[in-house]
């Protein structure tokens, strides 16, 4: 049973916290940058791409727990215990996406296609992200062959 309702949220100016600075955080941050949120990354280390974004002032990188409040918290460390502690700290204070516990997530980031003014989102409610990716790739191929123009 699907328990989440698809909704497009205005992210411009929203305060986003990413706990963890690895490949998962980088992928999610890249997908959100065009929406112009205020992104803070809390992690002892971050990827080279995230370091570049921090140096350009596109995102903020910190190694200490931020004092400001956040609208959304994305938890994506490789440490399950840390993920759980961060989840418990922010539970009820922000909407949470926790990479290693889809059931605990308040929301998921669907596989998304943006083509002009058309936005297509595909989700399996967090149960099979690779299936969503495969469907997205097939739809992208169809669109590239003029599928939306027919």
Automatic annotation (TrEMBL):
GO terms for biological process: siroheme biosynthetic process. It catalyses: precorrin-2 + NAD(+) = sirohydrochlorin + NADH + 2 H(+). Pfam families: NAD_binding_7. Gene3D superfamilies: NAD(P)-binding Rossmann-like Domain, Siroheme synthase, domain 2. Its EC number is 1.3.1.76. It comes from the Bacteria. SUPFAM superfamilies: NAD(P)-binding Rossmann-fold domains, Siroheme synthase middle domains-like. One of its GO terms (molecular function) is precorrin-2 dehydrogenase activity. Keywords: NAD, Oxidoreductase, Porphyrin biosynthesis. Transmembrane segments: none annotated. InterPro entries: Met8-like, NAD(P)-bd_dom_sf, Sirohaem_synthase_N. This is precorrin-2 dehydrogenase. It comes from Denitrovibrio acetiphilus (strain DSM 12809 / NBRC 114555 / N2460).
């Amino acid at each position: 049973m699907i328990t989440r309702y698809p909704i497009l949220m205005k992210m411009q100016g929203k305060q986003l916290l990413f706990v963890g600075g690895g490949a998962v955080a980088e992928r999610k941050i890249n997908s959100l940058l065009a929406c112009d949120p205020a992104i803070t990354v809390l992690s002892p280390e971050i990827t080279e791409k995230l370091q570049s974004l921090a140096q350009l002032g596109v995102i903020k990188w910190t190694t200490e727990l931020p004092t400001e409040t956040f609208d959304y918290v994305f938890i994506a460390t490789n440490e399950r215990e840390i993920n759980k502690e961060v989840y418990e700290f922010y539970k009820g204070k922000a909407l949470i996406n926790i990479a290693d516990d889809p059931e605990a997530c308040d929301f998921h980031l669907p596989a998304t296609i943006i083509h002009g003014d058309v936005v297509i989102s595909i989700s399996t409610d967090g149960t099979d992200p690779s299936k969503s990716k495969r469907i997205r790739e097939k739809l992208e191929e169809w669109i590239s062959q003029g599928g939306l123009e027919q």
